[in-house]
Amino acid sequence: MTSKQLRRAREALDSFAIETPSWGFADTGTRFGKFFQDAAAIDLNDKLADAGHVNALTGCCPTVAVHVLWDFKPGQDPKAVARLARKHGVKIGAINPNLFQDQCYKWGSFSHNDPAVRQHALQHCFDSIAIGKAVGSEYVSMWFADGTNYPGQGDLRARKHWFEECLKALHQKLGPKQTLLIEYKPFEPAFYATDIADWGMAYLHAKKAGKRAKVLVDTGHHYVAQNIEQIVAFLLDEDMLGGFHFNDRRYADDDLTLGSIDPYQIFRIFHEIHAFSAERRRAPKIAYMIDQCHNEKPKIEATIQTVVMAQELYAKAALVDLDALRRAQAKNNVVDAELTLKKAFFTDISPALLAWRKANKLPADPLAAHRDSGYERAAASDRRRRRKALGIKSGGSFA
Ligand code: PSV
Ligand code: MN
Question: Using the 8-state DSSP alphabet, how is residue 180 labeled?
């Protein structure tokens, strides 16, 4: 690496943070079943401890996303949760209301045809906004399972209007530091018509909701051939990109570790962001978050793998020679344009990463440091014992 490249990569690393999801540390799984892990977090304290451990090793995961129903007990004091997070060296990040588990949402939440259910859903979101204000979180992150399974089942335009009304009401309650993120997903659980199925729908809803509503791109929520970086470029250009849920996927929302299937895709996404920042001379405010549930890999290891991969790809994308790229594009020199991206992608970024970790007093290899730390073994034995005492299922000899 040249000294200029080294500087650029280190600047990129200085400015990069990625949020871990509380649910990524707990026993989660597929729709069909769960394979329990002894070291999986049992409660919020465990989740925050695991997130703090990942942050201590990687130095770039200062916040943890929470799912209100999964993490907060009724009546729990959010300020106490914020204190608990601080104790573990992290802060509470995005607040995710839950509008898909309550029985009343069988026919939808914001698009339910019964105004009482829509109101119930809104109230839960208002409560979530209040939690966000109390813990000093900057994001309220909305994902909706709303949709229909059969043609004719719902009035598609009426459902759109109900969404617009609710999102507007939600936006009005935001505090001055809060941003509303609207996530899209083409299918699952609805298989005929998901109410917010793609970035266009999310964009339109965010635009209508108010100035502080933006689109959240979950990399898993796209059809196989979809060009995600182009969506990112459009959203950036419209100042409507609010955040990411990072994972990798082969078919649909597979929740795999970042870059395990296609690291070049994530590199291309980061390239669009770096190019925008350099050419517009301003860094857009983007919440980089992980959304993964691991059923096979140990959860902390998978999270560290994702974080390290995100850092690598973010730093590599900062090395793209933008002048050379734009020159090649101006001449319609396809080969040189493509090679400009490839050159950055294939640069060995490890000297920059090592230097950055050394400067920040971090282990040179976070995954190896985690394995050497004995954290997993200690967590497994403590949590195995607590599970037994609580009568909670565990993997037993198959874990
Ligand atoms: C839905 O598939 C989703 O991507 C949403 O972001 C949820 O909050 C998350 O997964 C739950 O794992
Ligand atoms: Mn997601």
Answer: E
Of 143, 144, 303, the one to substitute when testing ligand 1's pocket (max ligand atoms within 8 A of C-beta) is 143
- Distance of alpha carbon 223 from alpha carbon 198, whole angstroms: 10
3-state secondary structure 110-143: CCCCCHHHHHHHHHHHHHHHHHHHHHCCCEEEEC
Superfamily, domain 16-320: Divalent-metal-dependent TIM barrel enzymes (3.20.20.150)
Ligand that comes closest to the CA of residue 99: 1
Q: Look at strands 193-194 and 147-148 and give their pairing.
A: antiparallel
- Best residue among 139, 183, 194, 293 to mutate for probing ligand 1's pocket (most ligand atoms within 8 Å of CB) is 183
Domain boundaries, the chain: 16-320
Nearest-angstrom CA–CA distance, 316 and 326: 18
Cα distance between residue 317 and residue 8, in whole Å? 10
**Could you say which DSSP state residue 392 is in?**
-
CB 21 within 8 A of CB 247: no
pLDDT tens digits in sequence order for the chain, 399 residues long: 899 999 999 999 999 999 999 999 999 877 788 889 999 999 999 999 999 999 999 999 999 999 999 999 988 999 999 999 999 999 999 999 999 999 999 999 999 999 999 999 999 999 999 999 999 999 999 999 999 999 999 999 999 999 999 999 999 999 999 999 999 999 999 999 999 999 999 999 999 999 999 999 999 999 999 999 999 999 999 999 999 999 999 999 999 999 999 999 999 999 999 999 999 999 999 999 999 999 999 999 999 999 999 999 999 999 999 999 999 999 999 999 999 999 999 999 999 999 999 999 999 999 999 999 999 999 999 999 999 999 998 876 665
365-385 burial code (b ≥16 CB/10 A, e <16)? bbbebbbeeebbeebbeebbe
Where does residue 132 rank: exposed (0-12), middle (13-18), buried (19+ CB within 10 A)? buried
By the 8 A CB rule, do 266 and 308 touch?
A: no
Q: What are phi and psi of 115, to 5 degrees?
A: -60, -25
Ligand 1 near 146 CB (within 6 A) = no
CA 43, CA 10: separation in Å to the nearest integer? 36
